[in-house]
Amino acid sequence: QYGLSGVYLATDSPTMAAALRQADPTIDWLYLEQFDRQQLNQGWTQMLITRMGLLDRRVVAESSFIDLLLLAQTEALVGQFSSAFFRTSFALAVAEKGHVIPYVGLDGAPTW
Predict the structure, then answer these.
(1) How far is residue 21 from each of residues 42, 47, 78, measured CA to CA in Å?
(2) CB environment 50-80: b (16+ within 10 A), e (fewer)
(3) Cys bridge to 31: 9, 18, 53, 88, which one at CB 3.0-4.6 A?
(4) Which has more pLDDT, 40 or 70?
(5) What is the dihedral of CA 79, 31, 39, 83, to 10 degrees?
(6) Among 80, 77, 78, which residue's Cα sits nearest to residue 101?
(7) Strand runs labelled E in the chain
(8) Between the CA of residue 88 and those of 14, 26, 45, 49, what are the distances in Å?
(9) pLDDT tens across 13-22, in order?
(10) What is the C-alpha separation between 94 and 81, in angstroms, rounded?
């Protein structure tokens, strides 16, 4: 409907991009490949893993900030409004564009 040719994924699932590429190879699926997101899927919360020193806090912070900046440049967003990260990226995108961009809230409309 919106004619999107590329999609940026801000996900902690390392297999998500591969699955999406296989599902629709006509779309350019982009995500931060430099950061090993597999380490975020250990069955522990990211905060606990970071506090235990198992994650490099600087790398986590920088990759999160880069995700937010890239999401703010998007033409449309899909995510969960229950996530503070998604709400922040949505607010940044609206501020960047000066209008509400097309969005899909997987858990409903924003309730802020």
Answers:
(1) 24, 30, 17
(2) beeeebeeeebeebbeebbebbbebeebebe
(3) 9
(4) 70
(5) -20
(6) 77
(7) 6-9, 28-31, 77-79, 103-105
(8) 22, 29, 20, 23
(9) 767 878 888 9
(10) 14
CA dihedral 92, 98, 102, 107 (to 10 degrees): 40
Question: With contact defined as beta carbons under 8 Å apart, do 28 and 6 qualify?
Answer: yes
- DSSP letter string over 53-91? T-S-HHHHHHHHHHHHHHHHT-S-EEE-TT-HHHHHHHH
Asked if residue 81 lies in contact with residue 104, where contact means CB atoms within 8 angstroms, the answer is no
| Mean of the per-residue pLDDT values of the chain | 81
Place of tokens 């801000």: 10
Reduced to 3 states, what is the DSSP secondary structure of residue 90?
helix
Contact between 79 and 102 under an 8 Å Cβ cutoff? The reply is no
pTM: 0.72
33 or 108, greater pLDDT: 108
